[in-house]
Design goal:
Layout: E1 3-8, H1 14-23, H2 25-29, E2 33-36, H3 47-57, E3 60-65, H4 67-71, H5 73-88, E4 93-98, H6 128-149
Parallel strand pairs: 1-2, 1-3, 3-4
């Protein structure tokens, strides 16, 4: 069973989102995940209902944290709020990923374990590939934990 992954990000961080989706390829190819972000919305279709539908059905929500994410009303007050509400109800696992240094003290996701390791934003790693590898390993650990807690079909 593939886990639905919703990627929430500010458009200013598109390059980071694109790198992350490349690094998720192995899990996608193994059919562990299906990932979705607003770049998958077809031209001429209504974007907001699609975002809210995918956010409501995802088992894993990745919040790509930066100052642009924190400054985005839609990311912060719609996507992050709904994701944290679902997390609190044990309906989804929210994983904050630190892209660039920013102030996130007191943010709703502050209570959650962030990645990469040591809460060191990707932008501060000597090698971004090492940072993304660390992130993917963290996501894989979360998936393994979710698989272990999901009842198996007979």
């Amino acid at each position: 069973m593939a886990f639905e992954v919703f990627i929430s990000y500010a458009h200013e961080d598109k390059a980071y989102k694109d790198q992350l989706t490349k690094h998720l390829s192995n899990m996608r190819n193994q059919q562990l995940i299906t990932d979705w972000h607003d770049g998958d919305i077809l031209p001429g279709t209504e974007w907001k209902p699609q975002i809210l539908d995918h956010l409501a059905s995802a088992q894993i929500v990745l919040l790509l944290i930066s100052s642009d994410f924190m400054a985005s009303d839609f990311c912060r007050s719609i996507e992050m709020k709904q994701a944290i509400d679902r997390h609190d109800k044990n309906e989804a696992r929210v994983i904050p990923i630190l892209l660039r240094p920013c102030d996130w003290d007191g943010a709703p996701f502050e209570k959650l374990q962030v990645i990469p390791t040591g809460a060191l934003p990707i932008a501060r790693w000597a090698s971004q590939d090492d940072a993304f590898d660390d992130i993917v390993k963290g996501i894989r650990r979360a998936i393994n934990s979710l698989k272990a807690s999901t009842p198996q079909n007979p």
